[in-house]
């Protein structure tokens, strides 16, 4: 199978996959600062100009690799039990952010975005975590009648473990089941609107 890059030329799927695999591996070995397009090309076994034909810089390569892997790693089957589904998603999210190469790439881009406006714009062009969380949240929102928007709900679900991991705290202290149960209660509270009712009322 062949795809077309930014230049409109056909590109080899095998070479593209090699580049995307190489950038994850190389990032883990050398870190973001030492990562170069030349190094990525050499690791992938392709010419540097081949890489530049598809991506403008290392951030673009990392972003695409991270996004592709995130779609796979953050995809969880829905059971119909919201609390169970939220727990499964949060388990996958913690594993992605804290333990996977793709998660390391995403964290590296987040760090770089704090002082590089081009990387910040790249990250804002899509919502890697929000898109995956929405697939779990939307059915529960529809069933609960919550007044929260999908964007608000996904932020509430993803936010606690995301902040916990990015602030350098121990992953072992993240209780995904408790977070899922609390999120389920939030949906119930917001369903009751401004009446201030709790899930147990």
From TrEMBL:
Transmembrane segments: none annotated. PROSITE patterns: HTH_TETR_2 (PS50977). Residues 13-73 form the HTH tetR-type domain. Coiled coil: none annotated. Keywords: DNA-binding, Transcription, Transcription regulation. Residues 36-55 bind DNA. GO terms for molecular function: DNA-binding transcription factor activity; transcription cis-regulatory region binding. This is Putative transcriptional regulator, TetR family protein.
């Amino acid at each position: 199978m062949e795809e077309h890059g930014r230049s409109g030329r056909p590109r080899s799927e095998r070479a593209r996959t090699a580049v995307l695999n190489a950038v994850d591996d190389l990032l883990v070995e050398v870190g973001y600062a030492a990562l170069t397009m030349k190094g990525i090309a050499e690791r992938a076994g392709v010419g540097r100009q081949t890489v530049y034909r598809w991506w403008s810089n290392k951030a673009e390569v990392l972003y695409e690799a991270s996004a592709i892997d995130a779609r796979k790693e953050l995809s969880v089957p829905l059971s119909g039990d919201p609390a169970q589904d939220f727990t499964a998603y949060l388990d996958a999210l913690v594993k992605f952010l804290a333990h996977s190469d793709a998660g390391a790439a995403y964290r590296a881009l987040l760090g770089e975005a704090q002082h590089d406006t081009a990387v910040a714009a790249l990250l804002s062009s899509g919502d890697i975590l929000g898109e995956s969380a929405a697939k779990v949240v939307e059915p529960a929102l529809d069933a609960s009648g919550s007044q929260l928007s999908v964007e608000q709900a996904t932020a509430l679900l993803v936010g606690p473990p995301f902040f916990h991991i990015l602030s350098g705290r121990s992953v072992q202290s993240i209780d995904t089941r408790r977070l899922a149960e609390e999120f389920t209660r939030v949906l119930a509270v917001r369903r009751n609107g401004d009446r201030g009712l709790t899930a147990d009322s």
